[in-house]
Amino acid sequence: MTVEEVIAKKPNGLGIRHLQVIMMFLALLLAFSMRVNLSMGIVAMTDPDGENTFDWSLSIQSMILSSFFWGYIVLQIPGGVLASRFGGKILILICIGVNSLITLLIPTAARLGDWQMVCACRVLQGLSQGFIYPSLHTLVAKWVPLEEKGRLGTVVYVGGQLGTAFQHIAAGFIADLWGWPAIFYVTGTIGAIWTIVYIIIGSSSPQESRFITSEERLYIQTSLGQIGGHKRYKTPWKAIFTSMPFISLIIAHCGQNWGHWTLITEIPSYMSKVLGVDIKHNGIISALPYLALFVLSIPNGFVADYILKKKWLSITASRKLFNSIGAYGPAIALICLSYTPADVVIATSLLVVVVGINAGHFAGYILVHIDMAPNFAGQMMGITNFFANIISLITPLAAGAILQDESDPSEWRKVFYVSAGVYILCNTIFVIFATSEKQPWNEVEENGNDPESKIKPEKAVSSE
C-alpha cells in the first residue's frame, strides 16, 4: 500500500492520536501551572498586609524564583535518552506526579523551613520537570502524522502558555478568597487527578496503545515511515554536537527562553510596583498576554500546515518565517514598551502584543528538532532545553541585578531592552544556519550500520 493510499483513507473524525495530544496538552498546562504558581504566589506570600506572610527581600525572592531551574537543567539530556529508550509515558507520569505531590507540600515547607525549604521543593520540582519536553518531543514524533504536525504539535506546546495564563488568572482570586496556600493545593490536586487518568489511557506510541484502531495505527505509521516496527538507533552524539544547524537550534531556544522567562517571572512585579495593580487584578492582566499567545497559536499551526500543503514554501523556509515572526515581533514591541508612559491600558496592550506574536515559535524552531532527526527528537530537545534553561535560571537573577528600584520605569526599560536584543540576535543566527532537512545521522542503527544515511530532498507536505 502506498503512502498516498493510506493518507487517502485517513480515519474520519477524532481518533486516539487526538486523545493523546489532548493529554499531552494538559500535561504541559499543568507542568507550567506548577512551574509559575510561585511567580504569583510570592506576591501574596510577601504582602505585608496579608496573613501568614514572609519578610523576604527582593534578592531572596529572585533566588526562590530561579531555584526551579537549578534542578530543571540537570535531567534534560538524560531525559531525552531515557524517553527514547523507555518511551515518553513513564517519564511524563513521573514529572506530573512528583510535581503535584511537592506542590501540595510547599505551604507546609514554607512554614516549617522558610525560604530555604521552598527553594529545596522548587529544585525537586525542576528535577522532575526535566523530563517534560524530551518526553513530549518523543511522543509527538511517535503519535503525530507528518501532515498534522503543525497544528497538533502547536496544540501540545501551547498548553504551557495556557497553563501560565490560567495560573495568573486563578492565583489572584484563589489567594484573595482562601489565602495563598490554596494556590498550591488547587494546582496539586488537579495534577494528581491527571496522573491517575493518564495511567489508564496514556501510551508511548500507537504500537503500544490498547485503544487505537488498526486503521489509525497504520495511517500514523505510514505517514511517519514506521512500518515494520520500531527500530532502535544509536545516538550520534558527536554528529549532533558538531552540526551547525543544531547549534543554531540551541541558540534559538536560548533566545526564546530569555525573553519568555523574563516576562513570566517579572510581569507580576512590574504590574504591582510600576502600574500599582492589586494582586487580584494583577493576575488577570498578567494572564492576558498568554491568553493572546494561546489564541494566536492554533491558527498559526493551521497556517503553517496549509503553506506546506500548498507548497508555497519549503519546510525550512516556513519554520524560519514563523520563528522570525515569533522573535522579531516581540523585540520591536518590547522596545516600544520601554518608552510608553506608566499607563495600565497601554502597557498591557503592548505586553499582549509582545507575548501574542511570540506564538510564531510553535511552528518555528520547536518543530525543527523533529524535522531534522525524528529518531532523536527527544535527545535533541533535551540538549537544547538544557542550555536554554541555564538561561532561564539566569534571567530572574539578571532582572534582580538590573532593577535597583522596582518602581522606577527607567530601570524596567533596561530589562526590556536586553530581552529585545537577545530575541533579535538569537533569531538572526537561527535564520542563517537552521534547516529542516533530515540529517544523515538520523538513522545510524545500534549495530553501526547506516542504511539510509543520505540526506533526503526536502519536500513540502501534502495531506491530499
SSE layout:
Elements: H1 3-8, H2 16-45, H3 58-72, H4 76-86, H5 88-129, H6 132-143, H7 149-157, H8 159-178, H9 181-201, H10 214-224, H11 237-241, H12 244-273, H13 279-309, H14 315-338, H15 344-357, H16 365-372, H17 377-402, H18 409-433
Helix pairs in contact: 2-5, 2-6, 2-7, 2-8, 2-9, 2-12, 3-5, 3-17, 4-5, 4-6, 4-17, 5-6, 5-9, 6-17, 7-13, 8-13, 12-13, 12-16, 12-17, 12-18, 13-14, 13-15, 14-15, 14-16, 14-18, 16-17
Write a compact overview of the structure shown:
Helix 14 packs antiparallel against helix 15 (344-357).
How would you sum up this structure, described in words?
- The protein is mostly helical.
- The chain has one domain: Growth Hormone, Chain: A.
- The protein is 73% helix and 0% strand.
- The chain contains 18 helices and no strands.
- Helix 4 runs parallel beside helix 6, helix 7 packs antiparallel against helix 13 and helix 13 runs parallel beside helix 15.
- The longest helix has 42 residues.
- It is globular.
- The N terminus and C terminus are likely disordered.
Order of helices and strands: HHHHHHHHHHHHHHHHHH
What do we call the CATH homologous superfamily? MFS general substrate transporter like domains
Structure classification: mainly alpha
State the CATH topology. Growth Hormone, Chain: A
Helicity level: over 70%
Number of domains: 1
Separation, N- and C-terminal Cα atoms? 16 Å
Biggest β-sheet strands, sense, barrel: none
What is the total tally of β strands? 0
Number of helices: 18
CATH class: Mainly Alpha
pLDDT average, as an integer?
83
The appropriate CATH architecture is: Up-down Bundle
Unreliable runs, pLDDT <50, ≥5 residues? Answer: 1-8, 450-464
Give the strand content.
Answer: under 5%
Shape: globular
